[in-house]
Amino acid sequence: MTKVFKTSDGNFIPHPDSRHESLRIRHRLYIDYCKCGICGSSSTRFAKSDNCIMCQRYKIELVRHFSTTKSDQWPSNVPTTLNNPYIMKEVNSVLKMMLETPNAVLHYEPCREYGHVRISNGNDQCMQCTNRLKPREQAIVDSEPTYVSTSPCTQCNNITLRKTDNKECLVCEHVPSVPGNKAPTSATKLTPDTIMMRDAPDTIVSREDAEIYGFKVYRTGQPCRRGHTGWRYVSTGNCIDCLKGDK
Q1: Which phi and psi angles does 130 have, rounded to 5°?
Q2: Which residues contact 217 (CB under 8 A, 6 or more apart)?
């Protein structure tokens, strides 16, 4: 029997409707309240990466198209809204990996762990997962404000989202101590986005302008489905307060 989850309004769905809940129970997918702001066709996301499952499938089609046709023409079966730097970054990276690995196999479904465009090299393992750094190290490289812990928080005992700069748990707000210091001293690793969110919480910047200026977050002041008017991620359109589990 397929496992189902009950929502707060009494409906039954195939995955939790909270990213934090999926992470807590080690479930690989969750259902967002809003459809993806890029493809507009799915609300299902991978818990560990927050990747939209349909966007990842479209990326696979893009890789297949550009690797087989050798054409710059956009494929008709992929929405043109995916023709942006955030989507094409992984597509171009996978295309490069395929060129460098002649016997690489492109699979029809994303990898189960992070939802990567899945290519393997004889051993059926996702090459992107194999080459991935530790979660916090990868978040620092990608300038992502949060990452998913690999071990439970020492205070709430859950696998959670944590802040990249100081490892703060976004569920219980516990900040782990840094060995050799009385308090975390990673403030120097704050990104321009986290500084802006901290020091100018009422700033209004459109998603388009944020993308032009290279921001990872934007804020329109318009409420999300749960009533939050705060910051959202440019890459997915997700409300950050919703991801933190704020009411």
Answers
A1: -65, -40
A2: 145, 193, 196, 197, 210, 231, 232, 233, 234, 240
3-state secondary structure of 218: strand
Residue 247 confidence class, pLDDT cut points 50, 70, 90? low
Cα distance between residue 119 and residue 108, in whole Å: 9
Instruction: Give the span between the Cα atoms of 155 and 133, in whole angstroms.
Output: 25
Buried b (16+ CB within 10 A) or exposed e, 208-229: eebbeeebbbbbeeeebeeebe
Who has greater pLDDT, 228 or 181?
Answer: 228
Residue-range domain boundaries for the chain: 13-132, 135-177, 191-247
Work out the average pLDDT over 1-6: 75
- The residue among 22, 15, 65 whose CA lies nearest residue 43 is 15
Q: C-alpha angle with apex 105: 116 to 41, nearest 5 degrees? A: 40
Contact (Cβ atoms closer than 8 angstroms) between residue 193 and residue 215: yes
Report the C-alpha gap between 91 and 125 in whole angstroms.
Answer: 18
Taking the whole predicted model, whether its pTM rises above 0.85 is answered as no
* Tokens, residue 161: 């989202």
Structure tokens at 108: 């029809």
Task: Give the distance from CA 61 to its chain's centroid.
Answer: 20
58 strand-pairing partners? none
Distance CA 16, CA 21 (A): 7
